[in-house]
Structures are given as C-alpha cells and as structure tokens.
Design a protein that fits this description.
Helix content: under 10%
Structural class: mainly beta
CATH superfamily of the largest domain: TonB-dependent receptor, beta-barrel domain
CATH architecture of the largest domain: Beta Barrel
CATH topology of the largest domain: Maltoporin, Chain A
Number of strands: 42
Number of helices: 7
Largest sheet: 22 strands, antiparallel, barrel
CATH class of the largest domain: Mainly Beta
Number of domains: 2
Distance between the termini: 74 Å
Strand content: over 45%
C-alpha cells in the first residue's frame, strides 16, 4: 500500500514538474501614446492573467510549445490582441503601446485613463503644467483654472476648493504626504511649491468625495507621482523678468527694471542593469521684480531655492526601495519705503499715503526625507512600507513703522488739480513688531497594501504620526491717530479721545505672547473594497471604504486630550451601454473629518486649546462625463453638483494667506455649487479647456445667523487655451485666463464679523473687487523632441530647445488680495484700503532638454 501511494505521489510530482517546465515567460512594460507607463493594465490568456505594476511592468508565465492568444486591455484604450508561440523556458519581451479608443472613451482626464474618470479624479498633463504661463509656475497654477478651485493671489501656491480653506487640502508625492510651512502669511514670502514639475510623471486631483485611502481632510486631494527614469537626460529652464518701478509721486511708472526670475535644472539617469534609477531637480526663484512693480516702493530681495531627488533601486522583480528627499531654503528680506494707493469710486475717490521705516527678515528652512519599500509577494498582492520625516525651522522678525495720511482726491475732470489730494481727513501711524520662531518635526511610519484579482480590489493601510512643535509667538501692534494711541475695542474700555483725556495705561492695540511646546500622537487606518463588474449590459464600478483616526494632544502645561473619529466613504460610477451616447454617471461622498493640526489648536492669543474637536463634513457629489466628437476631434463635458454640510466648524479669518483660527468648534456651515468643464482639441492636436463654477458657502457662528465664509467665491470662469500657427507649427501660444467674483475682504483684529458698518453691511459682506487675470505665453520650438534630432552642429546635444515670452497680467489689472483697515479718529470711520497684487510683468523664458 505504501509503495502504491509513493508511486502515485511520484507520478503527480513528475506530471506537475513537466507542466511547469513546459512554460515560457512573457514580460515587458505597458505604455500609453505619450510613452508613459500604464499601471493596472490587464494581460490575459484563457482564464489566466496578471496586471501591470505601478511602473507599467508585467510578467506572465505562459504555456510553451503551443500557440496561445494573449489580450492586453485597459479601459479607455484599444485592446491589443495577438497570438504567440514560445519555446520551453524562452523569455520574450513585449512593450506594447496602447492607443486611445476615441469611439469608446468617456473621460475628462487628459491622459486618457478611464479608471481615474470613474473615481472622479482629474489627471493633468505634466507637460501642460510646465508650459502654462503663471507668475508662480507649477502644478498649483494650473489647478486654479479648474472649476471649484479658487485663489486670488498669483504669488501663492495655496488654493481653496469648494468653500474650504488652504489647510483642508491633501498633497501626496509617490503616496507620501507632504506639508507646508506654518508661519506663512503672504504669497510674497511663500517661495516654491513642494512639487517640482520637472520630476513629475502624473498629476491626479480630486475636488471632493475622494476614497478612504486618502487622508483626513475636508476638501481635496492632489496626488503626484514622480517618474522613474528610463535613460539619461537633463533639462534647464531660465526665466528673466522685466517690470516697471512705481514712482515716488502720483505717476504710475518710473523706469524699467529687470532681473533673474528663476533657474530650474534637473538631471536623471539609470544604471546599466536597470536596477538603480535617480532623478534630481534644483530650483531657484527670485520674486523681487514682481514685488518691486507693485504700488509699494521697497528694497526687496527674496530668494527661494530647493534641491529635490527621487532615487529607486530594484532589488528584484518583487521588491523596490525608493527615497524621496527635499531641502528648501527660503529667505525674505523686505524693507518698505513708501506707498501711494488710490481706492474708492468716482464719487468718493481717496488716497492712502504711507511712509515706512524698518524692515522684515524672515527665514523658512524645511527638510524632508522618506523611504518607500514596495514588495510584491504574488502577482495579485502589493505591500508598501513608508517612513518619512519632515522638519521646518521658521523665523518671522519685523519692526515696521508706517506713517500714513488719508485724503480725498479731486475728481473734477475740468480742474487743474484733478487726481491730487485736496483734503486730508486723517493722519496717524502704525507700528508692528514680531519675533516669531517655530521648530516642528513630523515623523510618519505607514503600511499600505493592495490585493487585486479579476474585477475585485481590496486596499488597506495603517499609519502612525508623531508631531513635535516648539512655537514662540511675540507680536504686537500699536496704532496712533493724530497723536492719540488707540486702545483695543473692548467693551470695558471707554475711550472718547481726543475730546477727553484717557488716563488708563497705554497698551498695544493688539498683542500676542506665547511659548508652546506641543506634541500630538496620531494613529489612523483605512480599508476599502472596489469592484468593476457588469450590471445587465452596463459597466459598473463601486468603492466602499472606511477610515479611522485617533489622536492625542499633550505637552508642557497642556492637559492631555484624546479623540477618535470614523469616516465612511463611497463612490459609484455607471457607464451605460448606449450605442450613440458615451457617458459616465458618478455618485460619491461620505462623512469626512479633519482632526485639528497645530495651527487649528492655537487661538488668537497664541494659547493652545487641546480640546478642539475634528471638523466634520457630510459631502455628496453627483457627476457626469459626456464624451463626443466635434469636427472629428474628441471633447468631454464634465459636470458636477455638490453639497457639503459642516458641523463642529472652527471659524477663522484670513490675513493674506495666513489663517487665524478661533480654536473653538462653535459654528456650523454649508457649501453647495455646480462645476462644469469642457475639455478637448479646440485647435487640432492642442488640448484646451473651459471651466465654469458657481459656489455659495456660509457659516453660522454661535447661532447668530448665517454669514459668508472667508472663501465664499461665488462665480468663476477659467480658460486654458493652447494654439499654434498652422504654417509655422513650431510657433505656439498658451493663454491662461481667470475671472472670479470678489471674496470677503477680511476683518480687522478683534473685529466681530457680524458688526455692521454705516451702510448696514457686516465685514463678511464687504467684498474685494472681482479678480481678473490673463497670462499669455508665446514660444518658438527650435528643436522638437517628437521630431528628428539634429545630428550634428551646435545643437546636436539638445533633445529639445525653445525660447518664449510670457506676459503676466496682460491687461494690467489691479487685483487685491485683502484689505488694510485704516481708522480716522476725527470721524470715527474705518476705511478698508485694498492691498494690490502684481501688475503687468514680462518673462523671457529659455527651455532646453538634453
């Protein structure tokens, strides 16, 4: 009996061995038409198959010595079907290029990947990002042309999405969460975006209703993937700015000023065995020409620079280790001299004259490093392990005395003194002082996993975060009007100066002093399930997930406070099987939470409030993508309707781009709107889009009634248009056009937003002027990478070479970012004086690739 069992086992082993030895290996990289890897493509024969990994790489064991039929597919592309017969143990490499199927595609995304469309994600082309003219070039500049995304400061990389603020947006690079500095309060100081577009492979953006795999924020997700090089290459982009200096009088111009705007260089390479790949980017930017062209005359030299790298090593076909590193050094030296600002209207035109003394010296240094290991034990399972550390060291020092005079301007066109100040209604001074220092370290340890088989996918993850913040705040503001120090507007102070003397001690109008040592421990995790299937004859995709977040705030002189939140989320997409109409319908949403970050725990006095709860939002998004052909060119019309109901809201005010929270969950809010975007080849071969959006968002603080939130951007139109001269196709043009209605202009320190002025409006009803912005770029391509390379001569080493001219703010529109509030002691009135942004500036741009 034992011999019989042994013989049967031996026979089974020999049969199995024979089957396995009679096999061959099919491998390669799946690419799209832009030669970019396609992750998640299906490679199948009969009932067996595999999926390409994040780099588009696949390996499939196939039977040998027989002809088989292999199918390579990815939704939104034409299927690749072929027959192949390989010998035993043969390794055959096939790198197919998937072509877009215009007849079946149904998307808004530029890259043509339908998977992102059904998930409600917009994908932006990195090359379009690099070419789009913007005073602050980068990913964020292009995001601002999308519906639902708004910003009224072209010098800032910050943006608000569907009524949220700058702190409600998630940013990932290669699945690693990145952060921004804490003390930033002006777009002039902000410097460079973390994302280096020269290193980018893909850009995905979701404006709401995103999956559970993304973190705990209320508004949006920006998901960046840096590329893995396939060979040696280098790029260089140099920009030279040309502006005009404001005069010392009332005339608008006083000479031409020029200076270096930016230098961006990058290099990439790969080892001979293809295992080690590295890409490096170095950036330098100087905004001084842009700022010197503003109404304020300044001595100004801001320098922003960073070095960024992504290095990856493939230890085997199952394990890859990557390193992402960034070092950023920002210096901001600001010495204002004088300013002449006209504001008001034709009936009541006024001028604010300011003479300054003092300076501001700021420094923001950030250090970031992350290791990411990707292990694929089976063809269906991928495990990622991520560890990262972020440190920011920031200082904000300033002592600035501003002596001002507020006067009425002569509006009589027939008068000899038209445009001149004929009556000064008030004069005074303001002194601001700060010695703010911050040192923060954020450490993350994270695991993520994916199991994908057939139409089913399961994702999970767990993350531990430790935040250690040391923050010293020392700020005060003294306001003097006609020799009388103005006290804070508290009810216990009765001040009827100058008619009766005030014998109380002189105190600053605004004073903040605090020393905070705060530690926050967080544990978060998620699990989600996705399925792509058929419902009758229609394609159906669904995702259901849940996130959990625990955090504990503690520190020196701070009572410990811990909380837990659970966030369920879902997305469903349906593509009907209609013959003549190509559409996708989407429904997404969930119960989103935003546990407080350090900035949200600090109140107006600088005191940390550890009991601040997570803000909550119930978010629902209904979307539709309609793809069609117009003049044989593909177009997609994307429409979304959304609604958000927020509770435990932490109210805030915005000073330039600095957000100041009340550190109290004493409000509720809502936001709703409609976003529409038409994308397509308005000009053959050149992708463009038109965006239109409507938003309304209000909050109710302490049940006192609903008022506009600081981000209440009612109406927006954005246009990105690309064109070229048909007879000279190498001469191209790029137009970036933006119109937004005005947002609330902010409130003075200590001011109650419900307080009404003499016209019966509260501060939130006093809006800034509408924001108009048009940037134009014209470039000539001397060497086109897509065409034949120059074989000899001076330009033989270039893959591409172009020279361009960019005009920022073509129409020289005076846009305002916020208001400065000036008080007139004699009348008791308070005037909102707009702070204007950059005027028309030219940029000469040289771009090259080796």
């Amino acid at each position: 009996m034992r011999k019989l069992i042994f013989l049967l086992l031996a026979a089974m082993y020999l049969i199995t061995f024979k089957v396995h030895t009679q096999s061959a290996l099919l491998k390669g990289v799946i690419l799209d038409e832009e030669k970019k890897p396609v992750p998640g493509a299906s490679i199948r024969y009969n009932k067996d198959g595999t999926l390409s990994d994040n780099n588009g790489v696949y390996e499939l064991l196939v039977p040998a010595n027989q002809e088989i039929k292999v199918s390579i597919s990815y939704l939104g592309f034409k299927n690749v079907v072929f027959k192949i017969a390989l010998e035993e143990n043969q390794v055959y490499e096939l790198n197919p290029v998937l072509k877009t199927d215009i007849e079946q595609i149904s998307e808004v995304i530029i890259s043509g990947r339908e998977k992102k469309t059904v998930e409600g994600i917009t994908t932006l082309d990195p090359e379009t990002i690099r070419l789009t003219p913007s005073a602050n070039p980068g990913v964020e500049g292009l995001l601002k042309t999308l519906p639902g995304v708004s910003s009224n400061n072209e010098l800032s990389t910050q943006y608000s999405v569907r009524g949220g603020n700058f702190d409600e947006n998630l940013v990932y690079v290669n699945e690693i969460e990145v952060y921004r500095p804490f003390l930033i309060r002006s777009g002039q100081q902000e410097g460079l975006s973390f994302v280096n577009t020269d290193l980018v492979r893909s850009v995905d953006f979701s404006a709401g209703g995103f999956q559970a795999k993304y973190g705990d924020k209320l508004s949006s997700v920006l998901d960046i993937t840096y590329r893995r090089p396939t060979g040696f290459g280098a790029t260089a982009n140099i920009g030279m700015l040309v502006g005009t200096r404001p005069s010392s009088g009332n005339s608008n111009r006083d000479g031409i000023i020029t200076g270096l705007g930016n230098v961006f260089v990058s290099a990439e390479g790969i080892s001979k065995d293809k295992k080690l790949a590295a890409i490096l980017g170095v950036r330098f930017r100087d905004n001084s020409i842009i700022v010197k062209s503003r109404p304020t005359d300044v001595n100004f030299r801001p320098t922003f620079g960073d070095i960024q790298t992504y290095i990856s090593y493939n230890f085997s076909n199952k394990f890859e280790l990557g390193f992402l590193g960034n070092l950023a050094i920002n210096r901001y030296n600001f010495q204002p001299i004088q300013s002449f600002i006209n504001f008001g209207n034709l009936q009541s035109n006024q001028q604010l004259r300011v003479i300054y003394e003092g300076e501001e010296i700021d420094r923001y240094d950030t250090y970031f490093g992350a290791l990411k290991g990707t292990y694929k034990p089976t063809e269906h399972t991928t495990l990622r392990f991520i560890g990262s550390a972020y440190q920011t060291q920031e200082q904000e020092y300033y002592d600035i005395l501003a002596n001002y005079a507020l006067g009425d301007v002569n509006n009589d066109i027939g008068s000899e003194n038209v445009g001149e100040v004929e009556f000064f209604r008030g004069a005074g001074s303001q002194f601001i002082h700060a010695r703010n220092d911050l040192d923060a370290i954020i450490i993350n340890a994270e695991h993520k996993g994916t199991y994908n088989k057939d139409e089913h996918q399961v994702d999970w993850g767990i993350k531990y975060t430790k935040e250690d913040i040391l923050d010293r705040l020392q700020e005060y503001e003294i306001i003097d009007s006609l020799g009388f120090s103005i006290r804070p507007p508290f009810s216990e102070f009765v001040n009827d100066q100058p008619y009766n003397p005030n014998v109380s001690p002189i105190v600053p109008f605004n004073s903040v002093r605090a020393l905070n040592e705060v530690k926050i421990d967080r544990v978060s995790g998620f699990g989600q399930y996705s399925i792509r299937t058929q419902w009758k004859e229609h394609e159906l995709w669904a995702n259901f997930g849940v996130r959990g977040h625990y955090w504990n705030v503690h520190g020196k002189n701070i009572s410990s406070s811990a909380s837990v939140k659970i966030s369920p989320r879902m997305q469903v997409a349906l593509k009907p099987d209609w013959e003549k109409t190509d559409m996708i319908f989407r429904l997404s949403g969930g119960w989103y939470h935003q546990p407080p970050f350090y900035r949200e725990l600090r109140d107006s006095t600088g005191t940390v409030q550890p009991d601040v709860k997570a803000q909550q939002s119930v978010h629902i998004v209904l979307g539709n993508d309609y793809s069609f052909l117009l003049k044989k060119r593909p177009f997609t019309l994307t429409s979304e309707i959304y609604y958000k109901y927020l509770t435990d809201v932490n109210p805030y005010t915005i000073e330039n781009v600095r957000i100041r929270y009340e550190a109290a969950n004493n409000a509720k809010a809502y936001a709703y709107g409609v976003d529409v975007r038409l994308t397509g080849d308005f000009v053959p071969g050149a992708e463009s889009w038109l965006s239109v959006g409507y938003l309304k968002t209000e909050e109710n603080i302490e049940d006192r009634g609903f008022i506009s939130r600081p981000t209440d951007q009612r109406f927006k139109v954005g246009l990105l248009f690309q064109d070229y001269v048909p007879t000279i196709p190498n001469l191209k043009a790029y137009l970036n056009l933006l119109f937004q209605t005005g947002v609330p202009g902010g409130t003075p320190n200590y001011a109650d937003p419900y307080t009404e002025n003499s016209e019966g409006e509260n501060f939130r009803d006093q809006r800034l002027r509408d924001y108009h912005r048009a940037d134009l770029g014209i470039s000539y391509i001397f060497i086109d990478e897509e065409k034949k390379k120059v074989e000899s001569g001076l330009f033989s080493s270039f893959k591409s070479l172009s020279l361009g001219l960019e005009v920022f703010n073509i129409f020289n529109r005076q846009n305002a970012i916020t208001n400065t509030f000036v008080r007139d002691a004699s009348s008791g009135l308070q005037f909102a004086v707009p702070n204007f942004l950059s005027p028309r500036v030219l940029n000469v741009k040289l771009a090259m690739k080796f």
